[in-house]
Amino acid sequence: MNAPLKHPITGAGGGGGGKGGSGNRGKESRNTLLSNGRIQLVMAISEGEIDGLVDSDRSIYFDETALRSSDGRLNFEGVTWEVRNGLPDQPHFSALKAAEEPHEVEVQVKEQTGPVIRTLNNDNADAIRLVTRIPSAAKYEDDGDIRGVDIEYAFDIRPYNGSWSEVVRERIRNQKCTAPFQRAHYVKLPEGGSPWDIRMRRITGDSDSSKLQNDTYWEA
User: Fold this and answer.
1) Contact, 118 vs 195, CB < 8 A?
2) What DSSP string runs through 95-155?
3) Which residues of the chain have pLDDT under 70?
4) 157-184: pLDDT as tens digits
5) Residue 26 — left, alpha, or beta (φ > 0 → left; ψ -120 to 50 → alpha)?
6) Is residue 146 a contact partner of residue 176, using CB atoms and an 8 Å limit?
7) pLDDT digits (tens, 9 = 90+) for 41-55
8) How many CA atoms lie within 13 A of 133 on its CB side?
9) How far apart are CA 62 and CA 74, in angstroms?
10) pTM > 0.85: yes or no
């Protein structure tokens, strides 16, 4: 069984408030909790052989912006691409090394109501990607300040006729976001065979005030 994945995330307060005046306008910490999601896309645009891209990566667009501008500068970092022209003996795409099947969960996980459990019944599965979402992470102080919060949760897996083992422990410390934050955890499934039970536990206490926003969702 692999050791638990631990992802401590720490940050410091920041932000600023205006000067002048006798009242406290409040200080807002900067948003430090940012998603870094990636997309893997296969696009089939024809049946049979084609000529390919007209002008290499200058012909690839994201929201009407070319991957590479006309002066040769890259407008997006971290992009890799491959083209197949539709020949019968062409090689497969090197980036597609595994087949993935998404399963939506989309449920809020609370400390008070206990863990959320789902079962994976797939004899061919050897790994799982666990996706969580935090809609907003912020604490609104009485003096007008908006600060970061602490959030902690964990995932456990139990193989058939086996026992629970913790495989993910996520610790978020003094972090803030005003837009949804998404995190994916890739975990190798333990030996023991299908079906596997997977549960998410919220360790941080639940918020009982609109001034403390720290909800956690198991998304997929």
Assistant:
1) no
2) T--S--------EEEBTTTB-EEEEE--TT--EEEEEEEES-BEEE-TTS-EE-EEEEEEE
3) 1-24, 36-37, 94-99
4) 999 999 999 999 999 999 999 999 999 9
5) left
6) yes
7) 777 777 778 888 889
8) 13
9) 12
10) no
